[in-house]
């Protein structure tokens, strides 16, 4: 089975897309471009679409090209839409199109007389319940699969399965328990906890390898690792830089961890705010008054 991840946040950042395109058109072209870059990087298939009809035609052509190149019998291709709640911010027909895209494309592919007809399906990943999406405009109702948050036991098994090479099993298990004790009450995101595990394990393991504390000294290991674990609470979902050539427990590296990498959208918001701060005051007043009066 083949799959392609499509970020709905990327296609609905603003009210207008790239080069004057509407957000819905940009989303459709993003879908085609994502499939092409993943499975047909050297092909010259068309990824531009002026309307929904041309999008479906180009999508069918891309799927047939992938099936012809692989030549391994019928294939299934999934489109995974991340942060699908952003589809509600688009045009009214975008969400019904995405929900029924599999049936539309598969029906059209049946008339191509191809021996190995690919099968397309779509998956919407969101934190919102389906009732927030249902506007009564769907001909096909999707299957709703609720996924609960990870429990502490499940996260423990997940993190233990990702133990670094050469790490002591008992010491790493103790580290995972301490990490979840500090971070689990405020964060249950598996990806973020894996990131916190990777950046904090060295600070927990180095005192033992350098002989600062004994391998069985749980209190000593906790005392040295506690500042790093608590600092992680202040940098959740952020990324900090550390010097790989400097020990994790050194003051120099602790200072370098103050340099944070902001989330993607936040960077542009700060840049826009900085540029807008240079506008004259009377222009800001005129703009705000037009909005209030309009």
Automatic annotation (TrEMBL):
Q: Please give the coiled-coil regions recorded for this protein.
A: none
Pfam families for the chain: ORC5_lid (PF21639)
- ORC5 lid domain span: 173-220
Give UniProt keywords alphabetically.
Signal
List GO BP terms, alphabetically: DNA replication initiation
Q: Name one GO molecular function term.
A: DNA replication origin binding
Could you tell me which InterPro entries the record lists for this protein? ORC5, ORC5_lid
Gene Ontology, cellular component aspect: nuclear origin of replication recognition complex
Keyword Signal appears in the UniProt entry: yes
| Signal sequence bounds | 1-17
PANTHER family the record matches: ORIGIN RECOGNITION COMPLEX SUBUNIT 5
- Record's protein name: ORC5 lid domain-containing protein
State the organism of origin: Trichobilharzia regenti (Nasal bird schistosome)
Organism placement in taxonomy: Eukaryota, Metazoa, Spiralia, Lophotrochozoa, Platyhelminthes
């Amino acid at each position: 089975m083949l799959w392609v991840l499509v970020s709905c946040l990327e296609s609905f950042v603003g009210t207008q897309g790239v080069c004057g395109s509407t957000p819905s058109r940009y989303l459709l072209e993003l879908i085609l471009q994502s499939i092409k870059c993943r499975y047909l990087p050297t092909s010259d298939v068309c990824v531009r679409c002026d309307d929904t009809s041309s999008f479906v035609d180009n999508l069918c052509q891309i799927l047939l090209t992938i099936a012809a190149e692989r030549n391994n019998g019928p294939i299934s291709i999934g489109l995974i839409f991340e942060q699908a709640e952003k589809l509600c911010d688009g045009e009214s027909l975008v969400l019904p199109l995405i929900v029924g895209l599999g049936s539309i494309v598969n029906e059209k592919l049946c008339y191509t007389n191809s021996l190995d007809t690919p099968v397309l399906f779509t998956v919407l990943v969101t934190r919102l319940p389906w009732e927030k999406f249902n506007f009564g405009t769907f001909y096909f109702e999707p299957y709703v699969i609720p996924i609960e948050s990870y429990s502490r036991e499940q996260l423990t098994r997940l993190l233990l399965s990702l133990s670094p090479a050469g790490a002591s099993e008992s010491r790493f298990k103790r580290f995972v328990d301490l990490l979840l004790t500090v971070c689990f009450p405020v964060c249950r995101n598996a990806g973020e906890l894996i990131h916190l595990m990777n950046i904090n394990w060295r600070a927990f393991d180095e005192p033992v390898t350098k002989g600062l504390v004994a391998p069985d000294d749980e209190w000593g290991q906790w005392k040295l690792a506690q500042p790093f674990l608590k600092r992680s609470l202040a940098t959740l979902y952020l990324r900090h830089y550390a010097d790989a050539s400097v020990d994790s427990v050194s003051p120099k590296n602790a200072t370098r961890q103050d340099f944070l990498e902001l989330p993607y959208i936040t960077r542009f918001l700060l840049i826009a705010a900085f540029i807008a701060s240079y506008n004259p005051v009377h222009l800001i007043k005129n703009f705000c008054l037009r909005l209030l009066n309009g």
